[in-house]
Amino acid sequence: MATMQVLDQSGQKVGELALKGEIFSGEVKPHLIHEVVKMQLANRRAGTASTKNRSAVRGGGKKPWRQKGTGRARVGTIRSPLWRGGGVVFGPTPRDYGYKVPKKVRKGALRSAVMLKAQEEKLIIVDKFELPEAKTREFAKILNDLSVTEGLVVIEGKNEVLERASRNIPSVKVLRVEGLNVYDIMRYDTLVMTRQAFEKLEGVLAL
């Protein structure tokens, strides 16, 4: 059975954590990671791009000149797409780019992303995170002891002190385990999880 080292905040080994074989076994599936990241990015798109077609542009109700006898081309409205200031042909309109993938695909992608970090030795399990006060300096020291310069820190639940202490470090993001997602795992170089958060993740993936 595969195991992971459990470190304390100073980076010293304090124990080991056995990985559940039925969850973290098999091969990493990059196509699942790709599909879920693509879905997440599509769901984040605002979809607010908008243009006006010839019926939405203001004015142009009167025919510019009579149909025949002027020697010029026939025109019905000054808001024709052929004219300056006219409507746009097939321009973008507000739309929702979001879509969903099956639950099994999302779970498989999350499992593959965590396994990939473990294989690359970029998964760190920490016994716990405790800060006496919300000071960025204290949090930065812990990251330095763990040799983390850019990482995603996953905690088991609400921790306002830790969350506030991390706000001024742009290369680090603190996330609660219920919000863990494939995009953030792949975006940051190192994945740091508390022991309780990792055990909660195993429980979710086992369902």
Please give a structural write-up.
- This protein is an alpha/beta fold and 207 residues long.
- It has two domains: 3-45 and 98-206, 3-Layer(aba) Sandwich (Ribosomal Protein L4, Chain: A); 48-96, no CATH class.
- It is built from six helices and six strands, in the order E-E-H-H-E-H-E-H-E-H-E-H.
- The protein has a six-stranded mixed β-sheet.
- Helix 1 (30-44) crosses helix 2.
Brief descriptors of the model:
alpha/beta, 14% strand
Give the proportion of residues in helices: 25-40%
What proportion of the residues form beta strands (DSSP E)?
5-15%
CA-based shape? elongated
The rounded distance between the terminal residues' Cα atoms is 20 Å
Classify the fold: give the CATH topology of the largest domain: Ribosomal Protein L4, Chain: A
Structural class: alpha/beta
- Rg: 27 Å
> How many domain units?
2
Helix/strand order, N-terminal first: EEHHEHEHEHEH
CATH hierarchy class name of the largest domain: Alpha Beta
Strands ordered across the widest β-sheet: 2-1-3-6-4-5
Mean pLDDT: 92
How does CATH name the architecture of the largest domain? 3-Layer(aba) Sandwich
The main pleated sheet reads as: 6 strands, mixed
Classified in CATH, the superfamily of the largest domain is Ribosomal protein L4/L1
Low confidence ranges:
none
Number of strands: 6
